[in-house]
Amino acid sequence: MEKMKALCKRNIAFPIFALFFLVVTLLHQLGIVNSYFMQVMMLACIYIIMAESLNILNGMTGLSSLGQAGFMSVGAYSSAIFTTYILHVSSLPEPLQVVAFVAATLVGAVMAAICGVLIGIPALRLRGDYLAIVTLGFCEVIRAIWRVVPADIAGGAFGLTGIPKLANFFWAFLFMILSLYFCRNYMDSSFGRACLAIRDNEIAADTMGIDCFRYKTIAFASSAFIAGVAGSLYAHLLSYIHPDVFSYAKSSDFLVYLYAGGVGSISGAMLGALALTVLPELLRFLNDWRLVIYGALLLCIILFRPTGLFGGREFAFLQLKTGGIRVFHVSTFTNWVKGLFRGEKRVKEGAGK
Amino acid sequence: MDNFLQLLIYGLQLGSIYALLAIGYTMVFGIIRMINMAHCDFLMMGCYMVYFLVSVLFGGEMIGPAVALLVVMAGSSVIGMVGVGIERVAYRPLRNRPTIMCMISAIGVSIFTQNLFRALPFIGPNPRSFPKLIEDFTINVGAVKISFTRIVTVTLSIFIMLLLWFVIQNTKIGMHMRAVSNDKDAAALMGVNINRVISITFFIGAFLAAVSGSFYASSYPVMQPTMAVTLGNKAFIAAVCGGIGDIRGAVLGGFVIGVAEILVTSVWSEFAYGFCFLVLVVILLFKPEGLLGKPMTEKV
Amino acid sequence: MKKVLSLILALAMVFALAACGDSGKDGGVPDTIKIGVMGTMTGEQALDGDNIKGAIALIQQELDAAGGLKVGDKMVKVEFVFGDTEAKPEQAVNVMQKFIDQDKVVAVLGPNNSSDCLSSYEVAQSKGIPCISNCGTNTKVTQIGDYCFRACFIDPYQGKVMAQYGINECGAKTAAILYNNADAYSTGLMEAFRDSFEAMGGTIVANEAFAGTEVKDYSAQLTAIMNADPDVFFIPNQNNMVPMIVQQARAMGIDAQLLGCDSWDYEFLADLIGKELCEGSLYTSAYANGIETAKDFHKNFTDLNGFEPGFPSAMMYECAKIVMGAIQECQSVDGAAIRDAMANISIDLPTGHLTFDENRNPVKACVIIELVDGKRVYKDSVSAE
Fold it and tell me: In terms of pLDDT, which residue wins out, C3 or B45?
């Protein structure tokens, strides 16, 4: 019993996630939240995954990538081709479709990871801004390749249509949580610590015996792997993909999500992607001025909170030992609420560990 | 052979536009090591500025080359000031942060300006025709055709390159720029006013972008708020190919990318767009500092 | 305090979305119905958005004058809700979801862009909301399901008409094409034109591609076309690229007869190109000023909006007319009922009488328009054989 309690206490996040998922699903079933909300949530989940994937490169390893949409497109296309043309999923019975979807997502992720290694190995000879430009170049090359692939394989200019709509909120949410924990474990593992060391000072890390090249390649592969998962979800959610969807503009969107949320922090990437996916939807009533205000708000975030919305903090539930600057604990919030009721100033002790 | 020569000429013409834009990128990058993603918006603003000046002052009529030059210079100076203003508001507060923050901020500026221009009722999203500033005619040299506007563009980009080169090598402000580029903190200690140098750099960068915008729009006379996004990327790639931070490299890179793009297009037009990026990747893989760049040394 | 603020803000944003209101449906036609209008209001194709807004403004004016839409013996107020797709497929899906769930629209007009139709119509189909595109000419759009309609013709038809007209009326034996291989619309038209032209005994002497709206310099492709010296030069591209292609082609000395497609149908296109450069160019459209039945529409539209209607606006006007006609016919706001009424509709519209075939594509002739002195002149009505 004691053991059970301890286990629950350690993994407090899981019941919370399950509860969150159940509540949202229930609300949707009852018709209190509509499908539009669900659609935005699913896109937000996908973009959270993308922001996390970018965080592995930009935040943890200190490599800047401007071509994340390229990896996403590899995942999206290979998984979509896998389900649509190789398995002909729509003719399969329902339970098998789910299996096929998970398999396709894995295929997409693995293909993206292979792509990541292939791009990473040559690109890692470069540093800083040069690396960023080369990843941008690779992203555009991948896009140009999708355009010239014959139309009966990948749709070419017509885009790939008729992809079975297999992704739903459950899968988007599940993969989002999985990628969150993948990143968390990555950061807390020896890989992650090596990456952090490389980010902070590559020469020092090298001197300490860290094989920089190896860890950077691993970072590239892991990042591309996660981006591939997001790509597969994206393809099977919208059931239509086009090379131009995965343009440089998309990559810079992800970059903006990550930096607005707080680079280097898993929680920050998550919040940034969530906030900036929801924000343009909330601004829809502005019509023509929507993206003007969005751009202005974005600038405000970056100028007034250069460390990101979440300022490099991490949620306590992730139980990170490394990385995060400060830990944002649930008790901070509860104490703050208690303080409100008592009419006192916030209780200082709860501020963090 | 004639065909090849003709394509080469077209390549140089296209390259001259890239080169002109790349100079602006390389200036800003050289001084504050920041990828100015909003640079292409200066180009767009420059086009609209000149467009409005010409239509308000001259009713959209064709004007002589001297007046045209004057109008372009005046319009571009305004954009130069806008550039200084944007640096003051959006980049300066982030100067002590990692340079990528400036880049993110530039992306924000870019989203903001493009959509602002789209939403403003007197600009709007519709394409507009850029006024003809000078009479364009074709010169035939043997079987090869050369457009006059393009000759002017090529000449101008080389002239600007030489002028800037002179300014940077031989004047006091040029020396300050080189000092800031080399080591910002040490330059500050030596009494260089960093803010002033960076402001001037941004003025020159935005000014050049606006000038190249006018030339770009003379060759491709359809203006839209989103007209320059990919052009900006390509110009940046040209700058990187040539060796970023080096003005000569920017011009060389511009011509290399332009010629490569045209030649590949004539062979396999479907893949030409991607090829431009492939050139960049290959150049950087074999010469990571760019064609004319100096090898980087990392400070410990 | 500050620490929590960002979290609370983020949470608040999420739940603000959820809190958007709901209203139940009851039997019969309610006093107010909403119709969604989506299109590329911003972005590269924002021009079409202006046309769409103009067409809806005219419809709104007509409705206001009549005091609403007469359904049975009841006057119903019609509200149009606008949504911007930015020419991005995922935004189109978001807008469609918002229309259906939040705005509770009874039908959706647009989007104008085939890619946006392809992604968003899946949603409408699964929710049983009829939608009708004004310019989604891609064949696959109406194949998504039986709730998907269009008011325009399809790409293969248009390409075929142009090829046929080029051979029969212009006496062309050889043709060149310059198309955008990143754009479904352009590629589709190229394929249709190429196939029909070759089937009718013509030769395609040059078929050149460029990739995406990013490309502004076509000199390499045009050199190849000039060397091939075709009789006709087919330019199936979006209207923001056409001016530069034509200008560069003429500057290079290509003097072939220019053939275009429906995207050319835009009042200022000839000015953008330069009047003398595009003199005598021919293109297909579904709407022309010269059509006898469209006189009133043309005048009213121009009076209201200050610019002349073109293909997207005329088709959007017809979309709205079709949907409202169907609602009057079935006297219901139920999706299935409107769909059935639309499928069986027989209505007089500015461009003539309209019925739908079994694939929910309209049965109508193409109009050939000639550019004369910068003006769009109605030349001919043609049906493909």
Answer: B45
- Determine contact, residues C28/C74, Cβ cutoff 8 Å: no
pLDDT at C4 over 60: no
For C188-212, the pLDDT digits (tens) are 889 889 999 999 999 999 998 887 7
Which range of A49-53, A150-154, A241-245 scores highest in mean pLDDT? It is A49-53
* Bond preceding residue C111 cis, omega within 30 of 0: yes
Query: How far is Cα A55 from Cα A260, in angstroms, rounded to an integer?
Result: 12
| Number of domains making up chain B | 1
CB contact, 8 Å: C272 with chain B? yes
Closest-CA residue in chain B for C239?
A: B127
Residues of C whose CB is below 8 A from A268: none
Q: B71 lies in a domain?
A: yes
C378 phi and psi, to 5 degrees? Answer: -65, 125
Rg (CA), chain C: 22
Identify each DSSP E strand in chain C by its residue range: 32-39, 69-71, 74-84, 107-109, 131-133, 148-150, 174-180, 203-210, 232-234, 257-260, 282-285, 347-349, 352-354, 366-372, 375-382
Judge if A247 and A224 occupy the same domain.
Answer: yes
Cα dihedral sign, C155-C48-A42-A37:
negative
Which one of A251, A276, A291 terminates a domain? Answer: A251
Tell me the backbone φ, ψ of residue B26, rounded to 5 degrees. Answer: -70, -35
With respect to residue A177, please indicate whether it lies within any of the assigned structural domains: yes
ipTM of the prediction: 0.86
Whether pTM > 0.95 for this model: the answer is no
Select the residue from A65, A119, A127, A136 to test the B interface by mutation, using most B Cβ atoms within 10 A: A136
In the predicted model, is pLDDT for residue B114 greater than 70?
A: yes
What's the rounded Cα separation, in Å, for the pair C138 and C150? 10
Domains annotated on chain C, with CATH: 28-153+293-354 (3.40.50.2300), 155-285+367-382 (3.40.50.2300)
Question: Is A275 in Cβ contact with C115 (below 8 Å)?
Answer: no
Q: Residue A170 corresponds to which tokens in the numbers above?
A: 């459950």
Please report where in the chains the tokens 């502005």 appear, as a residue.
A286
Show the domain range for A233.
44-251
- Chain B residues touching residue C42 (CB < 8 angstroms): 115, 118-119, 125
Count of the separate structural domains present in chain A:
2
